[in-house]
Design goal:
It is a single chain. The protein is mainly beta. It has one domain. The chain is about 5% helix and about 45% strand. The protein contains 1 helix and 5 strands. A 5-stranded antiparallel β-sheet has the order 1-2-3-4-5. Strand 2 and strand 3 form a beta hairpin.
């Protein structure tokens, strides 16, 4: 889906990160807008808990057609960080890590 997003990200003092985003989709796609939240909380220097939620509002109205276009994802689990970068030494985030996580099945939805 071609989309334009605005996002907010916060690095917490104890090493966790949270972000939220909202966006608008290209008129050629099946949805009108998308929103989501992501978060990670360190358990140790190498392991953290993560969660991800994404929702795409269908471009069609309610009913059978609209509900078939609805897309959403909820995921959570454990993440291993090589080099001990699960905990950030400052609120600036871990050095050498990307600002946004790599697209995954939950944040990179595919239309048919």
């Amino acid at each position: 889906m071609n989309q334009t997003n605005l996002f907010w990200r916060h690095n917490w003092e104890f090493g966790a990160t949270t972000s939220a985003y909202v966006g608008w989709l290209d008129a050629a796609d099946v949805g009108d807008w998308v929103f989501g939240v992501q978060g990670a909380a360190p358990i140790s220097h190498h392991v953290s808990l993560y969660s991800n939620f994404t929702y795409v509002a269908p471009g069609a109205g309610s009913g059978i057609f609209g509900s078939s276009l609805e897309q959403w994802n909820l995921s959570f689990g454990l993440s291993y960080s090589f080099g001990g970068k699960a905990v950030s030494p400052s609120v600036s985030g871990p050095q050498g890590m990307p600002l946004m996580p790599v697209a995954n099945n939950g944040s990179f939805l595919v239309t048919d």
